[in-house]
Design brief:
With about 210 residues, this protein is an alpha/beta fold. It is built from 8 helices and 6 strands; from the N terminus they run βαααααβαβαβαββ. It starts with a strand and ends in a 10-residue tail after the last strand. Bound molecules: 1,6-di-O-phosphono-beta-D-glucopyranose (B16) and magnesium ion (MG). Keywords: Isomerase, Magnesium, Metal-binding.
Length: about 210
C-alpha cells in the first residue's frame, strides 16, 4: 500500500529546463564551448557538477577542479537570478490539485530533487508549506541515478521505502526510484524508461494508482 508520494521537482512540478539551458548557455558562450538543447536534455535530473562535466565534453581544454567550481558558480548565480521570475502560475498543469487531493486522502507528499535550489523554487511557487518532507541536492552526496535522495525523503517522512511512490520526468530518476525499492511513475521524457512501473500522459492519473 502506498503511504507517500515523492515528487521530483524540475520537470514534474515546474519546468525549469529553459532556465537551466539559458544559464548553461551563458557559461558555454563565455568559454567558447558548443552547447545546444540536445546536450541540455542530457542534464535532466543530473547534479550541477555532473551537468558541468557533460557540458565540458565539448571543450578544447581541460579544466582544473577550481576552474570547474568557478564555472559552476557562474552558472548557478545566473540561474538563481532567472529563478526570480517564477511564480505560482509556473506550476505545471493540474499539479496543485493533485497535491491537495493526495493530502486530503491522508497520503504524505515529499520532494526528492537533485537541485540545491529546490527550496528557493518551492518558495517562488508558493507551495513550500504543502510538503511533509523535502529532500534535495543539499541532503545527498550521490545524485540520481543513485537512490539517495529518495531514501532520504522516505526517512524524513518516517515511511518505509516500499510504501513510497516516486513521480519523475527523468530516466535517471526512474532508475533511482527502482534502486530505492519504490514504485516508479514516469511522466514526459521518463516514459522512455523500461524500468517505469507506470507511464502517465496526465499527472491526474496518479490519483487512480495510489
Ligand atoms: P541545481 P530535479 C535537477 O532537478 C534538474 O533536473 C537538473 O537539470 C539540475 O542539473 C539538477 O537539478 C541540479 O540543480 O544546479 O539547481 O542544484 O529534476 O532532480 O528536481
Ligand atoms: Mg526532473
Amino acid at each position: 500500500m502506498i503511504k507517500a508520494v515523492i515528487f521530483d521537482l524540475d520537470g514534474v512540478i515546474v519546468s525549469t529546463d529553459q532556465l537551466h539551458y539559458e544559464a548553461w548557455k551563458h557559461v558555454a558562450d563565455q568559454e567558447d564551448i558548443y552547447f545546444d538543447e540536445k546536450i541540455n536534455h542530457r542534464l535532466r535530473g543530473v547534479s550541477r557538477m555532473d551537468s558541468l562535466n557533460i557540458m565540458l565534453e565539448k571543450a578544447d581544454k581541460t579544466y582544473s577542479e577550481s576552474e570547474k567550481e568557478k564555472l559552476a558558480k557562474t552558472k548557478n548565480d545566473y540561474y538563481v537570478d532567472l529563478l526570480k521570475q517564477l511564480s505560482p502560475n509556473d506550476m505545471l498543469p493540474h499539479v496543485y490539485d493533485v497535491l491537495l487531493n493526495l493530502k486530503e486522502q491522508g497520503i504524505k507528499i515529499a520532494i526528492g530533487s537533485s537541485s540545491r535550489n529546490a527550496k528557493t523554487i518551492l518558495k517562488y511557487l508558493g507551495i513550500s508549506c504543502l510538503f511533509d518532507a523535502i529532500a534535495d541536492g543539499t541532503d545527498i552526496e550521490n545524485s540520481k541515478p543513485a537512490p539517495d535522495v529518495f531514501l532520504r525523503a522516505a526517512e524524513k517522512l518516517g515511511v518505509s521505502y516500499s510504501s513510497c511512490a516516486v513521480i519523475e520526468d527523468a530516466t535517471v530518476g526512474i532508475e533511482a526510484a527502482k534502486k530505492a525499492g519504490m514504485l516508479a511513475i514516469a511522466v514526459f521524457d521518463a516514459k522512455k524508461s523500461e524500468q517505469a512501473d507506470h507511464k502517465l500522459d496526465d499527472i491526474r492519473d496518479l490519483l487512480s494508482i495510489v
